Records
---
Amino acid sequence: MIVACCQLAPEIGNFAHNRAQAAEAIAEAAAGAAGVIVLPELVLSGYCFESVEEARALAVPADWAGFDDWARSAPDSVVVAGFAERASDGTLYNSAIMLHAGRRTIYRKVHLWDREKLFFTPGSEPAPVVETGLGRIAMMVCYDLEFPEHTRSVGLRGAQLLAVPTNWPYSERPAGWPAPEVLLGMAAARVNRMVVAACDRGGIERGQRWNEGTTIIDPEGWPLATAGTDGWCRADVELAATMDKALSERNDLFADRRPDVY
């Protein structure tokens, strides 16, 4: 199965542009036979809000009709993307949506990063693990990946692939090393024996640079692909391998856990 991550560069406040850019990327990935398509965090709005009012103006409800257009352009794919969600009571969430087989699954980011707390309310539900025709797929958003309890929880619930829309602010690091968030994704993949597809964003927004660290990671924790100069990242993955949690004749990733002592 092909997984495609589309490292786009949303423009803050330019909803029409962002919508068209996302729709074009989804259609292109589907035409390239991608089974799973992942887009960045807050792909419709941009990230660096200046006020709650700006964030609210760029938010959409979970039943926004535009998501139907995305689904129709990729009918055989699982599409995961981040967006600013405006709930029926007006509450704002930093959310992700999964579109598959006529269904919408929503996840509201549990762990908010820095200034996100000025605009969004944290989610209060576990990350979903969705049974799809392609495998069991979970989703989280950006900073969520840094909490091993969170990623382990979807592993224990059978996730074979974790899709992570992200906006990773640029971080300094030693020459030759990937962004630290990529290392965390590699660890999450390895200790849970699952594929991790983290889709970062590009561009510069209100002076903020990004890591542009989009990476697809195999169940052993090794990167299969990273974003090229065009921002695209594609890899052929085998989800069946994620079902075997054995490390050796006497060791098993999950059976060896000792929750009675931690």
---
Amino acid sequence: MPGQSPELHNRLHALRTEAGLTQAQLAEMVGVSRKSVNKVENGIFIPSSVLALKLARALRCPMDQLFWLPAAAGADADTDDT
């Protein structure tokens, strides 16, 4: 995804538009600026845990459908090494 942070990927833009919300409307729902929502959507800003949870709640989706970590090269995401 162009512009996405290499540490955290998201589907914020897609889920927000599916919900029929503008950036400003979503921002108001979660208590941040429209610019903050834009920066998260574009991978410029990695949200705090609290903001990520608020965004997921506002969009009525599980957080792991909204945000995810990319798989490391050669790593299996389903492997539990503990």
---
Amino acid sequence: MRRHILILAAALMLAGCAYGPLNALPGAGPDAAELVIIRAGAFLGAGLPYDVAVDSVDVFALKPGGYAILKVAPGPHTIVARFPKNFPKDPRRYTLSINAAPNERLYFTVELDSLWGNDIKTTQIDAGQGEALMKKSAYQPG
């Protein structure tokens, strides 16, 4: 009986560790902007995905050392990253507001805000930093 409980508990914990697309964004059109979301590999929270939401829609579960490219319509958007909904705590959310121009590529990193917290900070970075981090990271197709 104890063994069955341990197996069930392990299965439930791993169920929250799926990576990749979650929900589709509305069609972005031919002049779409690209949002490159990069998660550098780190020890803290390493096994859990970071769920990335654009305009309040969970669109991607990002693995450590991975990045995703999301296409959005030009205009204002909000981006937030957090631990999955089934994680025991629902952290404060750091929401970043942006304005994407047509055919623009914007780069962002997502990382834990502090050693002891469970808040995930989203930061916009320049293209040079973004391209360098992409070379060190694994693309997660959507």
---
Amino acid sequence: MAEQALVTGIGGKEPDVDPDAFLAPTSVVIGEVSLAAGSSVWYQAVLRADCGPISLGPTATSRTTAACTPTPASR
């Protein structure tokens, strides 16, 4: 069985992944993440948008083993 990226929602927020974005088989995309055509999320990188959005535009990259999460807004 081939591995594939984990792409899942959290707290009612779902990822929006363009079909032309590259997701490495071991990458993780959670929550309010937007990936444009030509963007890439590499091996073991984690984009966790549980408290705010993350957006990668065309040609943007989240490199191998990167972990990205937004800072919660001040209250």
